[in-house]
Amino acid sequence: HANCTMERTFVAVKPDGVQRGLCGDIIHRFEKRGFKLVAAKFIKASEDFMKTHYLDLKDMPFYGGLCKYMSSGPVFAMVWEGENIVKLGRMMLGETNPADSKPGSIRGDLCINIGRNIIHGSDTLENAKREVELWFKPEEFVTYTSCFQPFLYE
């Protein structure tokens, strides 16, 4: 697979997803797709940390409430690696509003309300890089070769 570029993306199960016990299902979906988990932690982030994370939304009317909500309980933060993962990861999540999400997507299958859409995933390569660096230190990554690699990539 010398000609394919591996990307990393940041994915977090939000407090509602954690409370509903959906972390395992979400991990399973990314694993089944063939993506590789390279970092993960279970954390209760501060409101200030969430304000930094969602800085690009600071002018939106829901910004304050979102940051307060995201710091209200534990989140399961992960970094996944794979070819074209930012785009494919967003497709797996479904639309921001679960009502617009197709069945088969995480939000299309598992939630109803936009304010409780259970999961966050980076939307661009630039945001993925920024979010990965914000949430994880370099020493928190695990480098390994998946035994599935020859069966996933040419």
Automatic annotation (TrEMBL):
GO molecular-function term, one example from the UniProt record = ATP binding
What is this enzyme's catalytic activity, as reactions?
A: a 2'-deoxyribonucleoside 5'-diphosphate + ATP = a 2'-deoxyribonucleoside 5'-triphosphate + ADP; a ribonucleoside 5'-diphosphate + ATP = a ribonucleoside 5'-triphosphate + ADP
Task: Pinpoint the Nucleoside diphosphate kinase-like domain residues.
Answer: 6-143
Q: Could you tell me the EC number(s) of this protein? A: 2.7.4.6
Question: Could you tell me the keywords of this UniProt record?
Answer: ATP-binding, Cell cycle, Cell projection, Cytoplasm, Kinase, Magnesium, Metal-binding, Nucleotide-binding, Nucleus, Phosphoprotein, Transferase
Q: Is Nucleotide-binding among this UniProt entry's keywords?
A: yes
| Swiss-Prot/TrEMBL cofactor(s) | Mg(2+)
Output the InterPro entries linked to this UniProt entry.
NDK-like_dom, NDK-like_dom_sf, Nucleoside_diP_kinase
Residues forming the catalytic site: H120
Q: Where in the cell is it found?
A: Cell projection, Lamellipodium; Cell projection, Ruffle; Cytoplasm; Nucleus
Task: Name one process (GO BP) from the record.
Answer: CTP biosynthetic process
Specify the superkingdom: Eukaryota
Q: Which cellular component terms (GO) are annotated to the entry?
A: cytoplasm; lamellipodium; nucleus; ruffle
Q: Where does ATP bind?
A: K14, F62, R90, T96, R107, N117
The entry assigns this protein to a family as follows:
Belongs to the NDK family.
NCBIfam families under this entry?
Answer: PRK00668.1
Q: What does this protein do?
A: Major role in the synthesis of nucleoside triphosphates other than ATP.
Record protein name field:
Nucleoside diphosphate kinase B
- Record the organism: Periophthalmus magnuspinnatus
